[in-house]
């Protein structure tokens, strides 16, 4: 299938972006370079095209009860204009997707899902509908989205709107923010570990918003940022990526994300029984952070051994641009996850020493 | 892309310069450009004997790792240790900053490589 173009495709080409096919979308892996873009977000401000993300709306009388039944987090505690990060699990406790749930009203929810999972999620959600009185619509093709991220994100975005951005606190949203003449939904969310906003609008509107933000941020040294640094930034900030730190075969508990799995919430939810059992019986494997002692960069999929025995694999690994260290996440047998444990990362079939450290690589 | 005259090139974008009986080996400008900012270089040991087309090195950017293959067979007689401390040298000047020197076991293998003119044509077709 031919990859799709986001409404910002022409802008990426104009800016010299190195465009690749990612999850069925033509998106820039980088413009100037991964490291300068990564540093712009950590120290100043960067702008991402995230129009590939999926958006699914769930509306109707039973919307709250239905979303709460689908999700591992406690949706009943969420108030209007608040957002939660959550997993949507299958009955076996495997993850269908990880997503953000925006509560617009008790009967109006807006789900932001992974691009590569959008069609699967829509089908899954529709199949669970049963007797719930809800209307489920996949509006992904009508939504353009950018993420402005970094310590100077608010300063730049504020130049383009009369809405006081201080009123949009962490993980809350405002549905109607005028960004230099374009009506947008703005939330204080992101995938970088920095302050910032995600801005949702129409496919037509997003081109103007993109260009206006880049223009407004010139003084602050804003850079357009590609998928390359999106991954290094989220990794350093311990934010999981579907298919890596959790997936249909890696449960959110194994990933270490129990905080987002409310096993004791009032209502039943899909996967509760399996996850409860997994938790009660104890996890056989867990996600841990590690740092290389020997020379080498750990990469996704590399085998991990202890005394010649395979104990797991690397889920994500990098030379961290911020920390200048070779670090990674490892999904390994629980008995080896204690901090300080030495393990071997198999780099090109050779064991290279590493030690288990906290997954919170960036402790600010 | 810069192509240095007088060198021999492979399809995988390695270069070879003959200095007497010794082949000096590195990566071409195209390869460093494709990789982006290089942050790690792994080199073989001195005296390693490596066959043509076997990987002798791994060069990594933040994003990805790439194997670098022997353009000719031979025994490693020198490695450029500066690259280990400062991998970005390969971005700065991939022709000045060689990777290894080998004593060739079969000089005829050089004839199987491209001249700089042939490599330029090859690059034009790759684009």
UniProtKB/TrEMBL annotation, chain A:
Pfam family, one: GCV_T_C
Domain Aminomethyltransferase C-terminal: 285-361
Enzyme class: transferase
Reaction equation(s) it catalyzes: N(6)-[(R)-S(8)-aminomethyldihydrolipoyl]-L-lysyl-[protein] + (6S)-5,6,7,8-tetrahydrofolate = N(6)-[(R)-dihydrolipoyl]-L-lysyl-[protein] + (6R)-5,10-methylene-5,6,7,8-tetrahydrofolate + NH4(+)
UniProt xrefs under InterPro entries: GcvT (IPR006223), GcvT/YgfZ/DmdA (IPR028896), GcvT/YgfZ_C (IPR029043), GcvT_bac (IPR022903), GcvT_C (IPR013977), GCVT_N (IPR006222), TrmE/GcvT-like (IPR027266)
Binding, substrate: 198
GO cellular component: cytosol; glycine cleavage complex
A GO BP entry: glycine decarboxylation via glycine cleavage system
EC id: 2.1.2.10
Domain GCVT N-terminal: 8-265
Recorded GO MF terms: aminomethyltransferase activity; methyltransferase activity; transaminase activity
Keywords noted in UniProt: Aminotransferase, Methyltransferase, Transferase
HAMAP family noted in UniProt: GcvT
Cited PANTHER family: AMINOMETHYLTRANSFERASE (PTHR43757), AMINOMETHYLTRANSFERASE, MITOCHONDRIAL (PTHR43757:SF2)
Similarity comment: Belongs to the GcvT family.
Function: The glycine cleavage system catalyzes the degradation of glycine.
Binding partners and assembly: The glycine cleavage system is composed of four proteins: P, T, L and H.
Name this protein carries in UniProt: Aminomethyltransferase
Organism whose genome encodes this protein: Tissierella pigra
Lineage of the species this protein comes from: Bacteria, Bacillati, Bacillota, Tissierellia, Tissierellales
From TrEMBL, chain B:
Assigned protein family: Belongs to the GcvH family.
A Pfam family assignment: GCV_H
Domain Lipoyl-binding: 22-103
PTM annotation (N6-lipoyllysine): residues: 63
Cellular component terms per the entry's GO annotation: cytoplasm; glycine cleavage complex
Domain of life: Bacteria
InterPro entries noted in UniProt: 2-oxoA_DH_lipoyl-BS, Biotin_lipoyl, GCV_H, GCV_H/Fam206, GCV_H_sub, Single_hybrid_motif
Cofactor note: Binds 1 lipoyl cofactor covalently.
The protein's role, per its UniProt record: The glycine cleavage system catalyzes the degradation of glycine. The H protein shuttles the methylamine group of glycine from the P protein to the T protein.
One GO process term, biological-process aspect: protein lipoylation
Subunit and interaction comment: The glycine cleavage system is composed of four proteins: P, T, L and H.
Essential cofactor(s): (R)-lipoate
Full protein name: Glycine cleavage system H protein
Record's keyword terms, sorted: Lipoyl
HAMAP family: GcvH
